[in-house]
């Protein structure tokens, strides 16, 4: 545990000191985003465009996370235990790519449909059965949705209106 805490501190200090645009806290044994980091990173949060929180034990992200890192373009939450996203995820007006693979989603996170800048959604290896294909097709920037490894009701999918690449 001490090693994971030291790794988080080291990675955050690098971003704060160097004015980096990417925060990588993958494989740090996190079960949530550390509250203390909001204070430590106050002066650089608007510069952060990419966050990786992959391979942790995160069960939920707070509204504060999405309001603090409002400039995010890329968010990698692969390999956690997320079941849903808070409504505030749609405040990420610049988000282009989100990786939610290998989590615990049983339903497609509908709030992602409100993000017009979204280009890529990865929900591989979850437990999603239904996909809002028509709503996804109306997203202006969407290019790719990865739903491999989900128990989809493929018979219900209308693939004739697709304007993006759908991986099943």
Please provide a written account of the structure.
By secondary structure, this protein is an alpha/beta fold. The protein has a single domain (2-167), classed as Leucine-rich repeat, LRR (right-handed beta-alpha superhelix), CATH 3.80.10. Helix content is 20%, strand content 12%. It has four helices and seven strands; from the N terminus they run αβαβαβββαββ. The protein has a seven-stranded parallel β-sheet with strand order 1-2-3-4-5-6-7. Strand 5, helix 4 and strand 6 (144-146) form a beta-alpha-beta unit. It is globular and about 50 Å long. The termini are far apart. The model has no long low-confidence stretch (mean pLDDT 93).
Numbering strands along the chain, what is their spatial order in the largest sheet?
Answer: 1-2-3-4-5-6-7
Strands, count? 7
Give the radius of gyration: 16 Å
List low-pLDDT spans. Answer: none
State the oligomer.
single chain
The sequence of SSEs as H and E is HEHEHEEEHEE
Q: Going by CATH, what is the homologous superfamily?
A: Ribonuclease Inhibitor
């Amino acid at each position: 545990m001490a090693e994971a805490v030291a790794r988080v501190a080291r990675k955050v200090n690098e971003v704060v000191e160097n004015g980096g645009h990417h925060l990588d806290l993958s494989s740090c044994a996190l079960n949530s985003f550390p509250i203390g980091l909001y204070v430590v990173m106050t002066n650089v949060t608007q510069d952060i465009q990419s966050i990786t929180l992959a391979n942790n034990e995160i069960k939920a992200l707070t509204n504060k996370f999405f309001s603090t890192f409002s400039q995010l373009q890329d968010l990698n939450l692969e390999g956690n235990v997320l079941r849903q996203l808070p409504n505030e995820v749609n405040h990420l007006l610049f988000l282009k790519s989100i990786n939610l693979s290998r989590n615990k989603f049983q339903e497609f996170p509908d709030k992602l449909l409100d993000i017009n800048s979204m280009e890529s959604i990865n929900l591989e290896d979850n437990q999603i059965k239904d996909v809002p294909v028509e709503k996804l097709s109306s997203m202006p920037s969407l290019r790719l949705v990865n739903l491999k490894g989900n128990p989809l009701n493929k018979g219900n999918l209308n693939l004739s209106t697709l304007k993006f690449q759908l991986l099943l």
